[in-house]
Design goal:
The complex is a heterodimer.
Chain A lengths: L2 H7 L5 H13 L2 E2 L1 H25 L1 H4 L1 H22 L15 H23 L6 H18 L3 H14 L9 H4 L5 H24 L6 H22 L3 H22 L2 H25 L3 H23 L1 H5 L3
Helix pairs in contact in A: 1-2, 5-6, 6-7, 7-8, 10-11, 11-12, 11-13, 12-13, 13-14
Chain B lengths: L5 H18 L5 H10 L9 H26 L6 H26 L6 H20 L9 H21 L2 H20 L3 H26 L8 H19 L1 H11 L13 H21 L3 H21 L5 H23 L6 E2 L6 H43 L1
Helix pairs in contact in B: 1-2, 1-14, 2-14, 3-5, 4-5, 5-6, 6-7, 7-8, 7-9, 8-9, 9-12, 11-12
The chains are: A mainly alpha, B mainly alpha.
């Protein structure tokens, strides 16, 4: 039975409407929106890849100055567009003037980063002061993020800040690039995380760009949890790490409930679970043999069941209807 | 037949369609709000990432439960019968758990139910494998036997749970059985294999199209789409030059010297190039998105096939050129199709996501209609409770 017939029988729509819907369903044109957009995207991807390889192979005949000029020109163009079309600054979230605005401003900032990077690599603009080379664009990113009210650029800024603080950080390759056995990195990460967390809390209280809190806290939560886990795995004073981990978990679960945010609940539970499992295994290793194997498989089965139950009931925990 | 609540599945499609009609102004805001209120869709069906997470955790849970069982009861020596028995036992437990969760937690494509279903099938197949002493020899009679034994399990779970991935597995299994059976003909098989596969695919496709229309198979709609997908892809691959050439060399002992070509090469070149275009043409003509998408993907495969044998040796130029051509095609088509022509349009079809974008405000109104009603009925219920408590106090 067709959906509109069902609605008609249940007395929600009239016969005329049902007939009109039948005609609409029969005659509606096929939408090739996503097909054409996909072709366009892939086309642009292939085209730019091909062009970049061509440029790379012929760099000797083109020359670095030409490329730098092109990048700079594009970058200035983007910023000019953003400056022209931006809405006045406000403490609240502003609505973007056009759907392209976001992308163009973001492109401008990315190009600016590439420009500085290119200058540094090719002509060593800042010499050996790599810190300044990173810090300078970071300030610009933060500035643009607030002026244009753009979360993507803000994230660039936060990443730059962390990079400047001695890390090359994005949530994904945080684990890959850094060797966490060094204590200074752990302490730096924890302090940086706490600072960002505090700053975001301060902004929330003062009502400054509250919607940026998500970006700040995502970053702070990831870096804090990973640094604490690293401390737990490698450093002495396990009890201190466990206490600290519990504290962060508590804070972010409360934050998640306040914000009705699933992500922070997920982060706290997953990282907390890793910490808990580590402790359980650490204790079990000191036991011996067969009984440990049985307990381990029981622990995994039970805790995975618990996690699944948690996922299914998370709406109740977050008090979302 | 189906384990999931049939009315709720039906309601999902009604609500979805109603939203589309609403955004086309075929029904009014009041009617939409009545629809949203009346047709409840209270399944637990989370977004993709949570689904993946749930799937992984459920998998861990099941396998560590199995490990727990093994470590408790049959640790030490390997006795095939015990292991086969434990597999079947867990398969049965999984099915029971699945039924229980679907009934009590309203799971619907939530990651958990799929994972339990696949585990149940997996346990059964491992159990059967142990029973017939399967030794992973792909062109053996035992493989054929095992594949045939799996078919009833697949069909039963499709009928009961309407799962897409199981349908895919059934499709692959079906073609595999067909392939292995045909191989038994010996030398003749080599000659007729591509054509036999193509004919079977056409039959499968037509049969699926026919049975999809039946009212009683309505809930299996997605499964039939998967079957059509497989049939279309196999039909193409059976005639693809690269597949035939490489598989003849690998499996049928064909030896090609330099400059030689496979028999009927010309025919297969044509099939490689033409079939995707035919798919795309009929996809557009019959307004069939599935045909269109598969056609588009197969065009890429056809292009790669030809590039593999007739390469010019300048990948960057080919990349740039093909990118440029694609941009031009897309740009021109978007320009032309801004206004609908030949029953095709660039305008987005109203669906769940972009519906929300353009109709967020109206949607809020519609939902508030419903919610007010609900809260008032809630308070009524609460009031009744209070009444009862009051009388208790009096006593």
């Amino acid at each position: 039975m067709k959906e509109n017939t069902q609605l008609n029988i249940d007395g929600i729509i009239t016969n005329e409407q049902s007939v009109a819907i039948d005609i609409y369903e029969k005659e509606k044109p096929l939408s090739v929106h996503w097909e054409l957009r996909t072709i366009l995207y892939i086309g642009i991807l292939l085209f730019t890849t091909g062009i970049s390889i061509l440029v790379y192979k012929n760099i000797d005949t083109i020359g670095h100055q030409v490329i730098l000029t092109i990048i700079a020109a594009l970058c200035i163009g983007c910023f000019y567009y953003g400056y022209k079309h931006r809405l006045p600054y406000s403490q609240e979230e502003t609505k973007q003037p056009s759907p392209f605005f976001d992308y163009i401003v973001l492109l401008g900032c990315l190009l600016f980063g590439i420009f500085i990077g290119y200058l540094q690599v090719q002509y060593s603009l800042f010499g050996l002061h790599y810190g300044i080379a990173i810090f300078f664009p970071t300030i610009i990113f933060f500035f643009c993020g607030y002026i244009f009210d753009h979360k993507g650029i803000l994230n660039l800024g936060i990443t730059g800040l962390a990079a400047w603080a001695g890390l090359t950080v994005t949530p994904l390759d945080l684990l890959k690039k850094n060797d966490f056995s060094d204590t200074t990195i752990i302490y730096t990460s924890i302090i940086l995380g706490l600072l960002i967390l505090g700053f975001s809390k301060y902004c929330d209280n003062k009502n400054i760009k509250k919607h940026f809190g998500f970006s700040y806290n995502t970053f702070a939560a990831n870096i804090l949890f990973i640094a604490t886990l690293a401390a737990l795995f490698d450093q002495p004073f396990k009890w201190l790490s466990i206490l600290f981990l519990t504290g962060i978990c508590y804070y972010y679960i409360k934050y998640a409930i306040a914000q009705h945010s699933f992500l922070f609940l997920l982060l706290s539970v997953v990282y907390g679970y890793i910490g808990l499992s580590y402790c359980v295994f650490k204790i079990l290793v000191s036991l011996n043999g067969d009984i440990a194997v049985t307990i381990v498989s029981f622990y995994i089965a039970a805790s995975c069941g618990g996690v699944v139950a948690f996922f299914i009931n998370y709406k109740k925990i977050l008090q979302i209807k | 037949m189906i384990a999931y609540n049939h009315t709720l599945i039906r309601n999902i499609s009604i609500v979805k369609k109603s939203k589309q009609w609403f955004s086309k102004q075929l029904i009014s805001t009041e009617q939409l709000s009545i629809v949203l209120k009346k047709y409840k869709t209270e399944f637990y069906s989370p977004n993709l990432f949570i689904k993946i997470g749930l799937f992984i955790f459920t998998l861990f849970a099941i396998f560590s439960a199995y490990g727990f069982y093994i470590s408790m009861f049959i640790i030490g020596q390997y006795i095939a019968g015990y292991f086969a028995f434990s597999c079947f036992l867990f398969s049965v437990i999984c099915v029971c758990a699945l039924e229980f969760f679907i009934k009590n937690n309203n799971l619907y494509n939530a990651g958990v139910d799929e994972c339990i279903l696949y585990s149940a099938l997996g346990f059964s197949f491992v159990g059967i494998g142990i029973m017939i002493k399967y030794d992973f020899n792909l062109f053996d009679n035992k493989t054929l036997f095992l594949s045939i034994l799996t078919v009833p399990f697949f069909i039963a779970s499709i009928v009961r749970y309407a799962d897409k991935l199981v349908t895919l597995a059934l499709g692959i299994c079906f073609y595999f059985i067909f392939f292995l059976t045909l191989l038994k003909l010996g030398d003749v098989a080599k000659l007729i294999m591509p054509f036999a596969l193509m004919i079977v695919s056409v039959l499968v496709y037509l049969a699926s199209k026919k049975y999809k229309q039946l009212e009683s198979f309505h809930y299996l709609n997605k499964c039939f789409i998967v079957i059509e997908c497989i049939a279309l892809v196999v039909f193409y691959l059976a005639g693809n030059y690269y597949v035939i050439r490489e598989s003849s060399i690998a499996y049928f002992g064909l030896k090609l010297n330099k400059g030689e070509d496979i028999p009927l090469a010309f025919l297969f070149y044509i099939l490689t190039a033409i079939v995707p275009l035919v798919y795309v043409y009929y996809g557009l003509k019959n307004k069939d998105k599935l045909l269109l998408w598969i056609g588009l993907i197969l065009i890429v495969i056809a292009a790669l096939t030809f590039k593999n044998y007739f390469s010019l040796g300048h990948p960057e130029i080919i990349l740039t050129l093909s990118g440029f051509i694609m941009i031009v095609i897309a740009y021109v088509s978007i320009r032309i199709l801004k206004t609908p022509k030949y029953g095709i349009t660039f305008e987005e079809e109203p669906d769940e996501d972009n519906f929300l974008k353009s109709n967020a405000e109206a949607m809020m109104i519609a939902q508030n209609f419903g919610q007010n009603e609900q809260t008032s009925s809630d308070t009524k219920f609460g009031g009744g409770n209070f009444g009862g408590a009051g009388s208790g106090g009096n006593f």
